[in-house]
Amino acid sequence: MTSRRTHIVGAGIAGLSAALAVTEDGGEAVLYEAAPHAGGRCRTLQPAGGFAHDNGTHVLFTANGRALSLLKTVGARERWFEPEPQGLPLYDARAGQMRRVGLSPWSWLLPSRRPQGLALADLARILRLVFASKECPVASIIGKRPIMDSLIEPLTVAVLNTPPSQASAQRLACALRQLIRPGAGHLLVARNGLSEDLIEPAVATLRARGAAVLTGQRLRMLLVANGRVIGLALSDRTVMLGPDDRVILALPPYEVERLLPDLSVPTRFEPIVNVHYRMRGLERPRFVGFTGALAQWALIRRDHVSVTVSAADAVVDQDSAAVAARIWREIAPALRAVGLEASPDRQPETRVVKEKRATIRQAAEALPQPPVRPLANLALAGDWIGSLPATIESAVMAGEHAASVLHHARGTRATLSKDRALKTEDAA
Ligand SMILES: Cc1cc2nc3c(=O)[nH]c(=O)nc-3n(C[C@H](O)[C@H](O)[C@H](O)COP(=O)(O)OP(=O)(O)OC[C@H]3O[C@@H](n4cnc5c(N)ncnc54)[C@H](O)[C@@H]3O)c2cc1C
């Protein structure tokens, strides 16, 4: 009997999810990751001599069933918790006022949890958005209403990382239909950090199941013959595949395009700018939203505060120090309002992380989608596959789907013995 191995390229969330799916029933998986660590766009940075922080704050919702199930599988579900169970504190930087807003529409029954400016007429617009059947920008449904500022814009850039004037109403609607279910709108964050509370437990689970996670291994080229992959040309080795072996490319679209240039993939991206301030924070993390400011969200952890600016096209090329100084002046009063010592004139040590291709741009247009299995024994995964917002949830789902597609596919086996003739060095 020949062994059947699944070679997974990319150890971001999609690759880790695919590997967990493959190994769940005893399947054999090898992961190849170009970077020195797993996690991809979802990881903790530990600069030498600096303070550890996530590349950017990641939130999950209780609606994200697949992501939460992955956390459970790797024993990390309890590490994600709801920082603001009473509703999200929103600081209006223009008025200098803080109020709480419920994320679930059910909580709006309480006047104190309603988004500012919400009127009866807005409910009809919100319903049109939730059940959007035709593609159009989010802004064209909501219009210039006060709730654009207080609810729709923050929600759209948080979920789609694309401004409402361009963002796909249908993609947002997919997320909203999940979020409005009772109990689904609770916002969760990692207690300590993305690597400690998600990536490391996932890698440890995979290793315990016998999977190999090889870092520093960039896939340079796919070796293809007769419609199937026969080998992987990696940084320092070429791995030849057995007749029953499969490959999952869990990579961003631009890497898939480089490796398989005939495929049509999304080519436009949106940046996220993250600013991290080293300061005495809070033992129990808090999460604060902003309106009327460049800052959109702040996560307060024990020893730092992380600020997110999504859909950051307008600022990503600006001077980092100037952006950080502006944001500090904006957030200092809100930090004081939650009990921290923060003066607008005394900016703490700061680190700015610019993710220029944080996600694909999720505009109101048909995005190119290649077939999930473009070669007989190769499937694609990644947060950009499918019609859901590009998030941890979609990356988990895409990884699981790729594993399942290959598992159930007929005809992934090699037919030509000469395929094996190339110089080879086995994985693992
Ligand atoms: C700042 C920021 C904030 C975000 N906030 C949220 C949030 O709040 N909630 C949420 O759900 N999502 C959020 N996201 C999105 C989330 O991070 C992504 O959807 C998810 O991490 C994508 O995972 P992935 O595995 O599809 O891709 P990636 O994480 O990009 O993984 C791809 C992996 O492949 C590796 N690789 C690339 N080329 C090669 C090659 N040739 N050979 C081998 N390896 C290769 C990369 O190094 C990487 O590790 C955020 C993203 C960013 C950047």
UniProtKB/TrEMBL annotation:
Gene3D superfamilies: 3.90.660.50, FAD/NAD(P)-binding domain. Residues 13-278 form the Amine oxidase domain. InterPro entries: Amino_oxidase, FAD/NAD-bd_sf, Zeta_carotene_desat/Oxidored. Transmembrane segments: none annotated. It comes from the Bacteria. This is NAD(P)-binding protein. It comes from Microvirga arsenatis. The lineage of its organism: Bacteria, Pseudomonadati, Pseudomonadota, Alphaproteobacteria, Hyphomicrobiales.
